[in-house]
Specification:
By secondary structure, this protein is mainly alpha-helical. 53% of the residues lie in helices and 0% in strands. The protein has ten helices and no strands. Helix 6 (141-154) packs antiparallel against helix 7 (158-185), helix 7 (158-185) packs across helix 10 and helix 8 (211-226) runs antiparallel to helix 9. The chain is globular, with a radius of gyration of 44 Å. The model is unreliable at 4-10, 13-32 and 62-74 (pLDDT under 50).
């Protein structure tokens, strides 16, 4: 019969609860002292007890990397990230009106660039650029003002003076309203435009609305209502107004919406002139300068 194993002191070894545990147990093959040492080792390496480990884990956290909460010990100025500027924020719920306006603006810019075939000498229709510039002069405000003043000074009838006086009033009203709207809107001219216009003023660097389009619509409607013309001449007047507005887009001076609003504004300006029609009865002082001798 084999003798039981003995330790160094000669006492028999008694199997303990730790030795009867399974081989996979963390305390297998160790005594009570080994078990307490192993537990103390685990407790000393716990994440909550080691401040260095805690700081490393907090710095590796994806939530901390996003800046959701500050680390312990940071100052109050570093507690929360500064908000983004208003222009850098993304509008996640844009309004339908904003989407529609941006879409119309994009279409307007694209179509204006496509129709700007005379914007430069190297453009596809660059050879007809001088003709378009003649149309530009024909719709300019200065020739119309000077011509109206000359005809008014040479007129010898009260009816002619009355019509010319109201035409002068309409041209001055057009210059005032267009300059006012351009100064308020301040829309830049198209990027493909060449600033070689005839007698430009300070407001001519802005694009909305087209002064040539407003003047063409105003003058054409004035002529059709106050001059007796044959049908071919009336067609030519309407065609001239349309070509003047189109030439502004082809030369790259204006966008499509500038010309479209210019036609509308010129049409409404004539309604204002017709409503405030000047005559020797309601404005006699204006006709004193051209009184018949």
């Amino acid at each position: 019969m084999p003798s039981p194993r003995r330790n160094v002191e000669g006492r028999p070894l008694v199997p303990s609860a730790a030795s009867s545990s399974s081989p996979g147990s963390p305390v297998h093959g160790s005594g009570g002292g080994g078990r307490f040492e192993f537990q103390s080792l685990l407790s000393s390496r716990a994440p909550g007890t080691d401040p260095t480990c805690a700081r490393l884990r907090a710095s590796e956290s994806p939530v901390h990397r996003r800046g959701s909460f500050p680390l312990a010990g940071t100052g109050p100025s570093q507690a929360f990230p500064s908000p983004l500027p208003e222009e850098d924020r993304m509008d996640l719920n844009p309004s339908f009106l904003g989407i529609a306006l941006r879409s119309l603006l994009a279409i307007d810019l694209w179509l204006s660039k496509k129709l700007g075939v005379c914007a430069g000498e190297s453009s596809s229709w660059g050879s007809v650029r001088p003709l378009m510039k003649l149309l530009e002069i024909s719709g300019h405000g200065i020739p119309w003002l000077l011509g109206t003043l000359y005809c008014l000074s040479r007129s010898d009838s009260w009816a002619g003076r009355e019509v010319l006086m109201n035409l002068l009033f309409a041209l001055l009203l057009d210059l005032l309203l267009v300059a006012l709207i351009k100064g308020l809107v301040r829309r830049r001219r198209p990027a493909h435009n060449q600033m070689d216009m005839f007698v430009t003023l300070s407001v001519d660097k802005y694009s909305f609305p087209s002064g040539h389009a407003t003047r063409a619509a105003l003058v054409s409607r004035f002529i059709l209502n106050h001059l007796v013309l044959a049908i071919p001449l009336r067609v030519l007047v309407v065609l001239w107004a349309f070509i003047v507005g189109l030439s502004r887009i082809m030369l790259g001076r204006h966008n499509v919406t500038d010309v479209a609003f210019g036609f509308f504004l010129g049409h409404m300006q004539y309604s204002i002139v017709d409503y405030c029609w000047l005559s020797p009865l309601n404005a006699p002082i204006l006709f004193v300068l051209w009184k018949q001798q």
